[in-house]
UniProtKB/TrEMBL annotation, chains A, B:
Low complexity bias: start-end ranges: 12-25
Region (Disordered): 1-25
Name of the protein in question: GntR family transcriptional regulator
A Pfam match: UTRA
GO terms under biological process: negative regulation of DNA-templated transcription
Domain HTH gntR-type: from-to ranges: 33-101
Domain of life: Bacteria
Length: 266, 266
DNA sequence: GAGTGGTCTAGACCACCCG
DNA sequence: GGGTGGTCTAGACCACTCG
């Protein structure tokens, strides 16, 4: 509970005593780690372990400072970074909350397909297939699974204003998403990441996408109601939870006749 | 030179006296602006005016603190945000430098097309056309120009390892890029944004892209060496300089047979 | 050794929210 | 009025760079 020595500005103790700079004598790597980074890691642990659940209020800065025996400023800097990474949300006068996918604000962080005209809104969702299967080699590799491990395969079609626009396939590690069925997916309202977070305790915090242009194959063409060969945007996404652990592979085909993938470079 | 009052912690002056909270009596809007935001705006002004040029060292934090009559911590927070926005780069022990597009590090911030295998590298560049013309209506609107204003039109083909992969069209405000010719584009080595920055004093700091899948038209198909109708990624980019001023419209067609558009959602 | 950014602390006060 | 995050200051020390 108290892995950190205190460092009053002028005391005689060794600053950064726990930071690793002395411990790395053999490795010859500096591995200096500031105090606030260590605090950040401790807070992240509590987030990951579920001590504070998505949507909940975490202890105040002064409280955390007391717990970790550091100044409020140090806790503040740690939380600043967590807020910048969207793991946590600050609200002045109220406190700091664990981020959740159950908010309007979060919904369009991972859904980047916007209508060319009009305001963004949520698509209708039709589940086409859900099954448990042995992970194909490529999927296993991208999800860091052993070849042959079980995965849940999901296929779904999403429509904006009745117009089929997104055809998606997902692969999820079977060990984590045990018991995920078409019924539960159908019943659930709101974004799929909200369900993952609430029902399976797995929160997506980061994703990496590779985007290509492809021609619609016969199956996709029929489902999306376009001619075979119609150019589609293909987005292959790997999502990660705490600790950079891959927990989702998703391949989406986007019809971009009246929508576009929005990206801001900054 | 001294638009800011000083705010010692315990003095009797009115804190945030220049922040606008009192000045907005009629408008009823809070419009409270912290000191460090005002400092940030002042530093940004100096960047925009060219007082410190891309690649140059800006004054040290203590020096700026003295100039603006605030504490180093306040200057620090201002620079922190500028560094987060890539306007400035900090280097411990050396100082803070104005960001420039003349660095390896910056080159792939706006070029997101990566090879499916192997390490990212720079494409060869072949200028196909450069001309001065009257801005088409759509271009004028996106660049906030008056319909009929002059624009520079550029068409170029980029190849990776000899394979044509990117076909791009650009529209630049004629008033800013006066004297831009095919020769200067051909002679210039390195990224185009580097030339814009060095030769025309206009630094791109942000861009917004809309991405679609399209079929190759006959002209594009021939230049890229593919069949007509081949699916291509179409990225329409509007770039901005200081003050959110649009200064470039770019439409790129990407052949994604052996490359992909890389995007990280975080 | 001098100068720079980076960390850490302590304390004061402000803006915001709620009971 | 009391609690929360947000701002601002001042001072000390650390890590890094360079002459």
């Amino acid at each position: 509970m108290n892995p950190l020595p205190s460092h009053p500005p002028g005391d005689g103790s060794t600053p950064n005593g726990a930071a690793g700079s002395t411990a790395a004598a053999a490795g010859n790597l500096p591995t200096f780690s500031p105090l606030y980074q260590q605090i950040k890691a401790l807070i992240t642990q509590s987030l990951q372990s579920g001590e504070w659940k998505p949507g909940e209020l975490i202890p105040s800065e002064v409280e955390l400072a007391a717990r970790f025996k550091v100044s409020q400023g140090t806790v503040r800097k740690a939380i600043d970074e967590l807020a910048a990474e969207n793991l946590v949300m600050r609200r002045q006068g109220k406190g700091t909350f664990v981020s959740t996918h159950h908010e309007e604000r979060a919904h369009f962080r991972f859904l980047r397909l916007m209508p060319d005209t009009g305001v963004p809104h949520h698509p209708d969702n039709r589940i086409l297939d859900v099954r448990r299967q042995s992970a194909p080699a490529e999927v296993a590799q991208l999800l860091s699974l052993k070849s042959g491990d079980a995965v849940i395969y999901i296929k779904r079609l999403m429509s904006f204003d009745g117009a089929p626009t997104i055809l998606e396939e997902l692969w999820l590690p079977g060990a984590i998403f045990k018991g995920l069925t078409a019924e539960r997916l159908d019943q659930y309202k709101g974004p799929m990441y909200g369900l993952f977070e609430s029902e399976f305790g797995t929160r997506m915090i980061r994703a990496s996408e590779k985007i290509r242009a492809v021609g619609a194959d016969p199956a996709a063409a029929e489902l999306l109601g376009v001619a075979e060969g119609t150019p589609l945007l293909c987005a292959e996404r790997v999502s990660f939870t705490y600790g950079d652990k891959a927990v989702e592979l998703r391949r989406g085909l986007y019809l971009t006749a009246h929508h576009h993938y929005q990206n801001d470079l900054s």
